[in-house]
Design brief:
The complex is a heterodimer. Chain A is an alpha+beta fold. Chain A is 57% helix and 9% strand. Chain A contains 23 helices and eight strands. In chain A, the strands form two sheets. A four-stranded antiparallel β-sheet of chain A has the order 1-4-2-3. In chain A, strands 5-6-7 form a three-stranded antiparallel β-sheet, with helices on both faces. In chain A, β2 and β3 form a beta hairpin. In chain A, α9 crosses α11 and α11 packs antiparallel against α12. Chain A is extended, with a radius of gyration of 31 Å. Chain B is α+β, with helices and mostly antiparallel strands. Chain B folds into two domains: 116 residues, Proliferating Cell Nuclear Antigen (Box), CATH 3.70.10; 127 residues, Proliferating Cell Nuclear Antigen. Chain B is built from five helices and 19 strands. In chain B, β13 and β14 form a beta hairpin. The chains are: A alpha+beta, B alpha+beta. The interface between A and B is large, with 38 and 42 residues. Chain A: One of its GO terms (molecular function) is DNA-directed DNA polymerase activity. Chain A: InterPro entries: POLD3, POLD3_sf.
Chain lengths: 540, 263
């Protein structure tokens, strides 16, 4: 069947794909050569096999998704992603060649460009002239094509909105309608739904949530995934910003996972620590009402929450805002404990609380430490990638907050807290009372601590890992002389003490210092270091 | 008797421009398979290997293997007299100590021939074993040239590090440091714009920018460049010459002392 036609068509495809760099899809092929689409697919398959080295192939995969409830889906995938996309499908899916092209275009609209132009031309032909698009027999095909197009758009997020609208508004919205609707799994379904523009979405919980905005839904549910779903849902009501809605769902999901995992960490750490953490454990992942936060405030780590808790109690409007802050505070609480852990491990003579003497945050010291801390905090806010280093930095922050909240130096407290980037102006008494034994200890030690302070330094070492060090700085902090290195934190593992000392020396001379070290070596030993080609290749 | 006729004469001009900065004198070896050159730079740090296969010439005749020693600057001087559209014919008789370059204008109304004296050059031909490289980076040649040029204004050496995500070129100098990361990018409008990384394992090597900058003189020959790296081998910077062959530059890496590597 293929033989004679293929002989004529192949050279033409080759010329189009390899010389004119056109995307040749089966649709284009079937219209251009008036062959059936199945035949066109087969031709492309054959062509792709012949020229597999010279061109890129896009496949269509269609089948039932693994997700619940079952959804029939058609996806496009490049050769590289083929296996990956296959995993999404249940059992076996059909894999056919969608198009061949010289390279995967950066602007994915290019994939549809040729056939769109072709379709336009065909429609613009005089009415008397029959063509494949006017032919009744093939109109149904066209409908299907366009429906598929819409599906593909869900996969390729890079397609411009303009294009999406063009297709969807065109006339074949109905073709994409038969999507199974899902009651609750909005996050999953949002992809499919959002492609169908303006399709009403009914969700028992989120239907109202979408209108009321984020706050109410958050107040109702502590589960993060719901918020995610809501994000997606609220976006669906907009024009079909497919890309946004899909990615919104994803990022939201990630966020949810992060929070979950962080709370997991909290609980495991809690087992190492005494009663304070035992309380904090329920508090951390708990919901965000004022009651919860006040419980949290009673614990050592969530003290910073207390201020926000007050706010939360006052107005529900701030719940959303509060929720964000709370998430951060959960993190920071956890971080602080990690930090203290380091102090215990690494500091021989100083004890846990020596991190911050009351003196530390007076006047210029606090001011000096401010910029660095803020930077670290800023970075840790979206913290996902490198939690450990950031954890430390936040730990310092919250520790600062805690120490400064000691009754003895109430003034410095508020100053340092604001400087740390956390707007905590008021302090709740519950914290001090709830955590008395620990605080007492702190008070005792902080009063005796010398006029030194620990400064947290984060840098990227030569191997690209983030190293966070806590360094003692004396009264003359400007000199940047690290007296002692408390902890070196690698992404992989913590190096032994010997390394720390070494690293402390390096902390003083980071990149510019290194450059300086290298330069003389380069100048003087240049030829000594340069390898000789004769040491690699032998004379014949 | 040797006679090679190259319709695309500008190609030979580009080849000469590509290598003459690195090598001053070299032997051109002609055999039935093609026209080749292998030469080291004077400091024996870099090596250039050129191959123009016989099929790429309109007419190729080489009765027996012939090695012609030439001063590349002189060859370049001669070839500069050829127009970009000229057809170049290289002729040499067996046992002769001269080579003749003949330039024909496209419409055949002007024919020039230049005879150049050959030289005796003691060249040591090196055996270059086929090797599997830990990482091969293909990228637009103009991009590579730009990176080398930019970095050489900051420092003298470049550290090329290849990971799955991309290739990083970094340098450090008196005025500061510079890092350029090129990510793998297969989604482009033209295949030659792609940056493709084939990597068995991550590799990081240090090279003198001076040589890399010389290599990039071959940029006009090809739109893409392939950089092959292995931790214990010289880097290979290869420019394919359309349907004819290639020009490959080998550069020995700088030996990193352990103290430098460890912080």
């Amino acid at each position: 069947m293929a033989a004679d036609g293929a002989l004529e068509i192949f050279p033409q495809i080759q010329a189009l794909v390899l010389d004119k760099l056109q995307v040749v899809s089966y649709k284009w092929l079937s219209r251009n050569f008036s062959v059936s689409s199945n035949y066109a697919k087969r031709l492309l398959q054959e062509f792709a096999v012949k020229h597999c080295n010279e061109l890129e192939v896009l496949y269509t995969l269609s089948g039932w998704l693994k997700s619940e409830p079952q959804t029939y889906c058609v996806k496009l995938a490049s050769t590289y992603k083929l296996e990956e996309v296959k995993q999404v499908f249940k059992d076996n899916c059909s894999v056919q060649v969608y198009s061949v092209q010289a390279c995967i275009p950066s602007d994915l609209a290019v994939i549809w460009n040729a056939e769109f132009v072709q379709a336009e031309e065909l429609f613009n032909q005089p009415l008397t002239e029959g063509n494949c698009l006017r032919d009744n027999r093939q109109v149904t095909f066209t409908l299907f094509y366009l429906a598929e197009n819409i599906l593909f758009l869900t996969l390729f997020c890079g397609v411009s909105n303009l294009f999406v609208q063009r297709i969807v508004d065109g006339k074949h919205v109905g073709a994409a309608a038969p999507w199974p609707m899902n009651g609750k799994g909005v996050a999953i379904e949002s992809k499919g739904i959002s492609t169908v523009k303006g399709q009403p979405i009914q969700h028992p919980q989120q239907g109202s949530g979408a209108k009321n905005g984020l706050q109410s839904s958050i107040a109702v549910s502590s589960d993060n995934s719901e918020k995610v779903a809501l994000d997606a849902a609220s976006k669906v009501t907009k024009p079909p910003l497919i890309k946004e809605s899909v990615s919104g769902g994803n990022t939201g999901k990630n966020k949810g996972q992060n929070v979950k995992s962080s709370s997991g960490t909290t609980s495991s750490l809690a087992s190492l620590w005494g009663n304070a953490s035992a309380k904090s454990k329920p508090a951390a992942p708990a919901a965000e009402t004022a009651i919860d936060t006040s419980i949290a405030a009673a614990t050592a780590e969530a003290q910073i929450c207390s201020h926000e808790a007050l706010d939360a109690a006052n107005s529900e409007d701030e719940d959303h805002h509060n929720n964000h802050k709370r998430e951060r505070n959960i993190v920071s609480g956890r971080k602080r404990r990690v930090f203290l852990d380091f102090s215990d491990d690494d500091d021989e003579e100083e004890n846990v609380t020596s991190l911050s003497s009351p003196d530390v945050f007076k006047g210029k010291h606090a001011a000096q430490s401010l910029p660095k801390t803020e930077i670290l905090l800023d970075r840790s806010k979206p913290s996902t990638a490198e939690p450990k280093g950031d954890r430390l930095s936040d730990g310092l922050d919250s520790t600062k907050g805690k120490n400064s909240s000691l009754p003895s130096d109430a003034d410095e407290r508020s100053a340092s807290i604001t400087m740390g980037g956390i707007s905590l102006k008021k302090k709740t008494n519950s914290y001090n009372q709830g955590d008395t034994d620990k605080n007492n200890k702190e008070v005792a030690t902080t009063s005796t601590s010398p006029k030194r302070r620990k400064v947290l330094k984060t840098r990227i070492d030569d191997r690209g890992r983030e190293v966070t060090e806590v360094i003692w700085e004396g009264e003359t902090a400007d000199s940047n002389m690290p007296e002692k290195n408390i902890s070196v934190n690698d992404a992989a593992n913590r190096p032994p003490a010997a390394n720390k000392v070494q690293a402390a020396g390096i902390a003083a001379s980071t990149n510019p210092g290194k450059g300086g070290n290298k330069k003389p070596g380069k100048g003087g030993l240049k030829d000594a270091k340069q390898g000789n080609i004769l040491s690699f290749f032998k004379r014949v | 008797m040797l006679e090679l006729r190259l319709v695309q004469g500008s190609l030979l001009k580009k080849v000469l421009e590509a290598i003459r900065e690195l090598v001053t004198d070299a032997n051109f070896d002609c055999s039935a398979t093609g026209f080749s050159l292998q030469a080291m730079d004077s400091s024996h740090v870099a090596l250039v290997a050129l191959l123009l296969r016989s099929e790429g010439f309109e007419h190729y005749r080489c009765d027996r293997n012939l090695s012609m020693g030439m001063n590349l600057n002189n060859v370049s001087k001669m070839l500069r007299c050829a127009g970009n559209d000229d057809i170049i014919t290289v002729k040499a008789d067996d046992g002769s100590d001269t080579v003749t370059f003949m330039f024909e204008s496209p419409n055949q109304d002007k024919i020039a021939d230049f005879e150049m004296k050959l030289m005796d050059i003691d060249s040591e031909h090196l055996g270059i074993p086929d090797a599997e490289y830990q990482a091969i980076v293909r990228m637009p040649s103009s991009e590579f040239a730009r990176i080398c040029k930019d970095l050489s204004s900051i420092g003298d050496t470049v550290i090329i590090s290849v990971t799955k995500e991309g290739v990083k070129f970094s340098t450090a100098g008196d005025i500061g440091t510079a890092n350029i990361v090129c990510r793998q990018n297969k989604t482009v409008d033209k295949p030659e714009e792609a940056t493709i990384i084939e990597m068995q394992e991550p590799v990081s090597l240090t090279f003198a920018l001076r040589y890399l900058n010389s290599f990039t003189k071959a940029t006009p020959l090809s739109e893409t460049v392939a950089i092959s790296l292995s931790s214990d081998l010289p880097v290979v910077v290869e420019y394919k010459i359309a349907e004819m062959g290639y020009i490959r530059f080998y550069l020995a890496p700088k030996i990193e002392e352990e103290d430098d590597m460890k912080p």
